[in-house]
Amino acid sequence: MDSLGDTVWDVVICGTGLQQSLLALSLSRSGKKILHIDPNEYYGGPDAAFSLQETEAWVGRHAAPSSGLFKSASITKPEGSTGLSFSRAYSLALAPQLIHSRSKLLSQLVSSRAYKQVEFLAVGSFFTFKPAADPEQKPTLARVPSTREDIAFEASLSLKAKRGLMKFLKFVLDYEGEAQRGVWGPHTDSPFNDFLQKEFKMDSDLQKYIITLTLSLDGEMSTKDGLAIIYRHLTSMGFFGPGFAAVYPKWGGISEIAQVACRAGAVGGAVYMLGTGIQAEETSSNDIQLQLTSGDTVKTKLLVRDNDKEEGTFSVSRLVAIVASPLKALFESVVEGAPLPAVSVTAFPAGSLRTDADEPYDYPVSVAVHSSDTGECPSGQSLLYFSTLSTPRSKEALNKALDSFLQAVNDEQMPERLFELYYEQGRGSVASHVDGRVLTLPNVPPSLAFDDAALDPIKTAWEVAMGEDTANTEYMMFPDREAALDDEMYDD
Amino acid sequence: MASDDSLPTLKVLLIGPSGAGKSALLTRYCDDEFDPESSTATIGIDFKIKKLSVRGKAYRLTLFDTAGQERFRTLSTSFYRGAHGVLLVYDVSSRASFLTMERWFDEAEANTGEGVALYLVGAKLDKAETSREVSYEEGQALADAHGALFCEASAKTRENVRKPFCDIVNQIVSTPGLLSGGNQGRTVGTVQVGKDGWYLSGCSC
């Protein structure tokens, strides 16, 4: 077998997060020689998913309050609890994201034929959290109506509210039309909330419904962005079947796509090394020479790497909780013929949670609850992925959110909490840069829903690596690579 | 063929160290071809499909090679998802290849569900007469220790080439619940995102 040093690689890719992995898939299947390495012993980088044991090892490396992209990680396990299953019965996603049905990520996975190895599950109902009206009562969850049928049958809405929402949905579905632009144009960069109030006379409850559907981290966005996000949601609704607008890859979300993309890269001829980073690099006129931590020295025409150093403009605080209840009420199919959802999302609007000092918490919190159908936990349990913008009180707010959520979803007794993981994730670098023979890819932003903008730098990197071949090669369009064979009878 | 898609699909993996002869075995079994010059890692094919009838019932057998990801031990957990059976292949003329098998068993057991069929294959049996480095008994003992079936085979001479594939399918279909049950099958709520549907549809039958 050839040694790694005998080849001049077209591209060495360092890091196996979603973007690098999709790049490896696209380049190797476009005929380029790819060496794909990752300093981690696992696939997925910041998009990875872990067993309990791997989670504990990861927390050990990211416990410090300042250690790059991930920090302040800690695990809480209630004493004496015996409800946890074995380590590999769990797959905890570091940055779980739902994918809207109309996302370009899905269409690229289909056109590159990689989708066949991923199992997609439906993301079902969206809820908003409603705090208890007085201390004697429990908080509740209200389902967010997001289709016309939903709205028509939603008992909690007044006729006036229904009319307002219907009018708004109709408006968004054609929001790029000339007449519609005339309405929102003047509000383009002003807050979406104000626009909803001024142009659609929505009260604060209705605004909360709409903001919930945007899955925004801070609840604040421009009218232009808000409309685009709601448009994405509405046009995704029903696209792959009735009753849902987004999907989630089974077994760990984006991590699974990254692994499948790497496998497809390997099928296309890419060579894979984990636990291998770059020790030193030296650029000459024709290529760049890399000394790998494995001891190998390799030459490549282009080096693509991620940027896990920069924290970026903001951080997200995350709390992942395993609870001993299937939380069935969250996973009902509400539309006839709809697949049983495996993921359900609840938003805690800004001000709906109270801090220890009994003051309202000013930022929204969200939770994506994953049922055991995701393969991320054993049956009878659920995984709760809470996230919110990092603030000095965000950890406290997340704990409050977990408490309040469990109160709201359970009729009888509180489900047992088996395991809690807390950490903070930086936004990471935003832009990609090309510096001679080194191209740096940005990170996937840590939002609740996958943002298609994260795909653009991959295509740019692909074009840089393809050079003159870009013109006669289609991006991410590949035939199936499977061989169907004759029948065989075997009877004994 | 559309009608084939309705057949129950079995996913079987071939794993083991580089150069053990996984691809030769697969190619001989599926295409009845053998290329003595080929020593490069397998690339280009995602998986091979073979329709197979066992005791009068037809199955769609999908066979997944390592695509070279065994070289630096970088097979992903997703590669193992939904596998019904794993063929673990070593070279009877290489002690070194046999010595890695304990780790391959560990990896396969850690990444697959309970009851998954494991099958140990000592490949390159044609070399046994001149350069055997692993005895039949050693192979059998290792297989026994992991509850796996065992045989030796040669892609070159065709000896026993069909045996591991047929035996593992037989074992899979006679293990209650393996085809339909637990985490192995596709979930009820699976969403079809591709135009021509899932290659693993119909697992629930």
TrEMBL record, chain A:
> From the UniProt record, which GO molecular function terms apply?
GDP-dissociation inhibitor activity
Q: Which domain of life is it from?
A: Eukaryota
Query: What do the Gene Ontology cellular component annotations say?
Result: cytosol; nucleus; Rab-protein geranylgeranyltransferase complex
Gene3D superfamilies of this UniProt entry? FAD/NAD(P)-binding domain, Guanine Nucleotide Dissociation Inhibitor, domain 1, Guanine Nucleotide Dissociation Inhibitor, domain 2
Query: Tell me, what is an example of a GO biological process annotation in this record?
Result: vesicle-mediated transport
Q: Which Pfam family, any one, appears in the UniProt record? A: GDI
Matching entries from PANTHER family are given as: CHM, RAB ESCORT PROTEIN 1, RAB GDP-DISSOCIATION INHIBITOR
The Swiss-Prot or TrEMBL record describes its family as follows: Belongs to the Rab GDI family.
UniProt name for this protein: Rab proteins geranylgeranyltransferase
Q: Which organism is it from?
A: Immersiella caudata
Query: Mind giving the lineage of the organism this protein is from?
Result: Eukaryota, Fungi, Dikarya, Ascomycota, Pezizomycotina
UniProtKB/TrEMBL annotation, chain B:
Which species is the source of this protein?
Answer: Immersiella caudata
Supply the name of the protein: Ras family-domain-containing protein
Identify the InterPro entries for this entry. Answer: P-loop_NTPase (IPR027417), Rab (IPR050227), Small_GTP-bd (IPR005225), Small_GTPase (IPR001806)
Assigned keywords, A-Z: GTP-binding, Lipoprotein, Methylation, Nucleotide-binding, Prenylation, Protein transport, Transport
User: Pfam families annotated for this entry?
Assistant: Ras (PF00071)
An example molecular function term from Gene Ontology annotations: GTPase activity
**Family, per entry:** Belongs to the small GTPase superfamily. Rab family.
Q: Mind telling me which residue stretches traverse the membrane in this protein?
A: none
Q: Which GO terms describe its biological process?
A: protein transport
